[in-house]
Amino acid sequence: MIDIINIIIERKEWFLGLMGQHLMIAGIAIVLAGLIGLFTGILIYEKKKLAGVVLSITNVLYTIPDIAMFGFLIPLTGIGNKTAVIALTIYSLLPMIRNTYTGLAQVDPDIIEAASGMGSTKLQMLIKIRLPLAFPVILTGIRSMVVMAVSIAGIASFIGAGGLGQAIYRGIATNNQTLMLAGSMIIALIAILLDTLFSFCEQSFEKRKSTRKRNFAIAFLVIIFGSVVIGSLVPVEKKEIVVAYDNTAEEAIVANMLIMLIEKNTDITVEEMGDLAGGETVMFPAAVEGEIDIYPEYTGTAWLAVLKHTDIPDQETMNEQLQLEFNDKYDLRWLGMYGFNNSYGIAVKQEIADKYNLKTFSDLAKISGEIRFGAEPGFFEREDGYNRLCEVYDMNFASHSDINFALKYDAIESNKVDAIIIFTTDGRLAGSRLTVLEDDKNLFPKYLCGNVIRIETLQKYPQLEAVLKLTNNLISDEEMSWLNKQVEVEGREPYEVAKEFLRSKGFLE
User: Fold this and answer.
1) pLDDT, average across residues 85-113
2) pLDDT tens digits, residue range 157-206?
3) Quick one: CA dihedral 81, 180, 64, 308, positive or negative?
4) What is the rounded distance in angstroms from the CA atom of residue 88 to the CA atom of residue 150?
5) What superfamily does domain 344-437 belong to in CATH?
6) Cα-atom radius of gyration of the chain, to the nearest Å?
7) How many Å apart are CA 123 and CA 337, to the nearest integer?
8) Mean pLDDT of 470-477
9) What angle do CA 392, 395, 400 make, to 5 degrees?
10) How many helices and strands (H and E) does the chain possess?
11) CATH code linked to domain 2-233
């Protein structure tokens, strides 16, 4: 706990910025869901034949996993805050619609009959009688909606939106549990605080407590969310280009190097969009649509996962074809190849390697029936992934598990699995009690890291070409592994590691 408090204090400006982004995203979604949900709840109360259909639809939407919802929305609305707000609004609708409908339905019919006998119109009865009497129930729906939106907003960084989820994902990616717990704790505290305030409001209405206290609580909540919405409408200085990267230490390091080189050698302002957990499935379409300008990519990933090729040509042919297809089909260009190859490999526990004298993938295939295998979820869907591995090497593992890439080393060290897919420049390989096996049939292509930039961006800022070329052969395999270790094992920040490396190469003073 002391470590968590210390990291929050040390990086208070960063956490405050993330908190502001988090509240903005959640606040806008809450306001939109509140208005839409209130109107819809009133509508299905007046048109009761619609109630079953509308509530069933919102129930179904509510059951969709949040990551699946983001994945569905990305092709339609892109990445960033807009998509996050839309997803949170959809999730927040159910409690608002349901409680509005339920609250209105529970109003005593005798009161309505008396009001009607006194000549009140339907609109007057709705505004002056039904809604005020239903408000305690509606307030419970608002309370659920607020807590839900604040909590789910933590996953918004998956698609490049802001918020405290960035701290969580960065902590997972860099094996920094303190950072991960700090982000989680702040989200939990915000949710608990808001839940307590709404609980106080509910009790005030139910027990008819002091009007002054009730009004104060309501005013406080209105001020909070009003400020969030108004703040979101204030014009923000537009950044000139956006550099994006996924939630791995490696991409964070190289992207930070690139940002420093751009800012050192040009007057271009750069916006950093990091911790995109979707990797190329998010960044490639975002670059095509113009939502980001530059991102790091790997030749093997681009060839197999992006362009969907099944053959693996020699590296020179692959590089030429990648440049041609990215240019002609997507108006993207490869510019600046960092020099290191981060390919796939298989690592097994050292005692298993010693016991069976394992040195190659083929050796592993012979005993695969006794091996529990683990890999990140994406590996099981890739063209060069799990199915291809089993086909080429005739492997038949005893079991296989989906494991987050940042947790796979923990999984094998805690004896949850016996073998894992690794990247050959993983920082956590150094010093681990693992044996990396040789891909003796050359199943995996080379994964050479380079920059992908929008041609439109390059035409607008031609000075970027010289800067991106500075990254050519900048980092060797061994250097990249050492840099990753600094972040993944030593717990250093990617920015600091990148800056120190560029200084050692003479690019920064």
Assistant:
1) 86
2) 777 677 888 777 777 666 677 888 888 889 989 888 888 877 777 676 66
3) positive
4) 9
5) Osmoprotection protein (prox); domain 2 (3.40.190.120)
6) 27
7) 67
8) 95
9) 120
10) 23, 10
11) 1.10.3720.10
